[in-house]
Amino acid sequence: MRESTQILIIGGGPAGSTAAGLLAREGFQVTLLERDRFPRYHIGESILPSCRPIFEMLGVWDKVEAHGFQPKGGAFFQWGPEEWEVRFSNLGDDTPNAWQVIRSEFDQILLDHARELGAEVIEGVSVRDIEFDGDRAVAARWYDTKDPERGGRIEFGHVIDASGRGGVLATRHLKNRRFHDVFRNVAAWTYWKNAKPLGKGPSGAIAVCSVEDGWFWAIPLHDGTLSVGLVTGRDLFNDSRGRLNGDIQAVYDEALAKCPTVLELLDGAEQVSGMKVEQDYSYVAESFAGPGYLLSGDAACFLDPLLSTGVHLATYSAMLGAASLSSVLRGEVAEQDAWRFYNTIYHHAYQRLLILVSVFYESYRGKEHHFYNAQRLTSDERDHLNLQAAFDRIITGIADLNDAEQAYQLVQDHLQGAESGDPNPLNNLNRVHEIKQSPFDPANAVGGLYLVTEPRLGLRSSEAPPPPGPS
């Protein structure tokens, strides 16, 4: 391995491979270190349409489309007595905008594409720690996962930590990861063959079905299997596990028996894998950037999987990070200003989704159930949110914008249909397109900066005239 690199990226998942590909395409020297050897298993199989423009920018969309993944026409929610659906065909494009993916294959496509764009990708190497010169990250110490005695050191100009939930920087060095008081849940899942197709909602949809103590997902995959998972509260899971002699399969089966929609899908189906379990505790780093470093994807923040936002946040942060770092390295923007842009835009995106997930849980008609009460944002959590920035178009006009409770209530009322009469929070979010606050719009500039892709990926001052077009 080389002893120094311009940009080091830790992690080869969607965040790391997207950032690596975009930066390599801009002509920078990029070294990506990935702990595992691909292909490797990963959960997080349902992709949102918001990933498509980023993959098109990266030049990998055609490869994803040609692979044969299950097209995802939208989502079906059976939420208490309510049944809602979201159809991606309403986005105005007849071609598939999203997919249900087997992550080992999907992540391999993205990582191979980063290689093709010029990134040096080294698999089977784990980062042990990061060295700092004062408060600036300057080097990483690594080791071979097959031979931990073999290792070395690599210096860098900048590092992007996309190491997933392990979070090399946030957990080992910065100690700035904050777990939310809510969404302290556990997921338990497995795979089934010969399941029946979902007779409701869009074609290829993910089904999300509530039960008294949580909810199930059902995701059809292109290899003929159905991914079926239970999300429940940590304490509820531990209580059930204790009562059932530690048998995770029994916990899953007991909850499944209370979910007739998913149970019907599995009538006559065969379970083809053992149970998998993962903590789904939501968290956020207090800052996503600092001298010489950026945090991206799950290394920066993680949100409850209810709305399938994981790959979206990973690739979105990778695009923001690549644009910010590109302008820094070209001398167009000071690092401190670029980091302020990245930190602000990324935090706002996360906060919008955090609030949406919380409101979605609160919309459950059965609030006496402990699980759903446990998902309500506390007053302290609401005080941490910048609601004005995250939902500016909704809360404009509040006399005292420091009143977090008042601002949150207005956002909650809007998302639960006080104006539209539609109780589906997703539909009400989509109706107010302005709140997306695109980072490409000069009107949404942060510190006078906004994101551009032409003629090169980077940041531009909202006060500067646009560069001349081709003659």
From TrEMBL:
- Look up the signal peptide feature and give its range: none
Q: Which GO terms describe its molecular function?
A: monooxygenase activity
InterPro entries (alphabetical) = FAD/NAD-bd_sf (IPR036188), Flavin-dep_Halogenase_NPB (IPR050816), Flavin_halogenase (IPR006905)
Transmembrane stretches in the record are none
Pfam families documented for this protein:
Trp_halogenase
- In which family does this protein belong, per the annotation? Belongs to the flavin-dependent halogenase family. Bacterial tryptophan halogenase subfamily.
PANTHER family listed in its UniProt record: FAD-BINDING PROTEIN, SLR1998 PROTEIN
Q: Mind telling me what this protein is named?
A: Dehydrogenase (Flavoprotein)
